[in-house]
Prior knowledge:
Helix content is 51%, strand content 11%. With 332 residues, the chain is an alpha/beta fold.
Amino acid sequence: MKIGVLGAGTWGFSLASLLASKGFSVHCWTRKAEFADQLNASGEHPKLPKQGLSGKLVFTTDLGDVLDHAEFLVEAITSSGMRPVFEQVKALGCPDCPIVITSKGIEQETGLILPEVAIEVLGEDKRHLIGALSGPGYAQEVIQGLPTSVVGTAFEQDVMFNICNTFASETFRVYPNADIRGVAFGGALKNCIAIACGVSDGLGFGTSAKAALMTRGLHEIRKLGVALGCRAETFYGLAGMGDVFLTCSSLMSRNFRFGHLIAQGRSIEQAREEIGMVVEGAYTCFSALQLGEQTGIPLPITNNVVDIITGELKPENSAAVLMKRSIKEEHL
């Protein structure tokens, strides 16, 4: 089976490598010709641990070649880059095959989850083909074959199980979850909480503070998600709690590291530049706040992160703002 992968960042590369190791013919698209040549020559990603690749894996800037006769399509770009890339995909003739969204974010202004962006661009007739892969997984660990468990989802059950079976391996376990909105929102919203936890750790607030942020952050995610039509239980699984735990507890997380760097005195731009990759949470928190206002759901931690990013709140004062909020009974 030929699989097309859109994006050769660390996550796209690790998934492409995983699929190639299963015997699939994988064609991976990137915008940069020099980078494609480098990956083809070395078989290694410069930002990932050195790991020998097995199977057929080709990197190219020819999007048409990636789409031609593809039987499975995997998106691994960024939330902001997804719409323009999918517009190119549509113009070239999107194949009638499962389309798996692996980026985690909410589109700016529209408030759409990324599977919905794909539908809006490609057309309603592609809805039944669209799914997503989400959950707690680091590219650095997947590429090394370390045990990882995530969630596969789709609008249609047969596509959902196809996704799970295609990605599943001895080291990569994929659980089916039919709540595609919940899976997508969980993966996106946890990045906002991860930034808050990075700020907390960077300021030396301790593990008790981080535990509170993670717990109350998950509460924010669940309340907003349910208001948007998601299933509450989804947020207690891998795409919710699992992803929150992973992203909020390690400097391997771009979002956590972003908050950590800001707390240590870096400017927003300096933190972005030092990380060198897109920090999805820095954009998602604004979209989440818009959705919170539309649904009437308060998001104090997310609001805190937005105020830090916009410069309205100094990181060192962020804890006091949250701690001084009026106390209410803990409803779960």
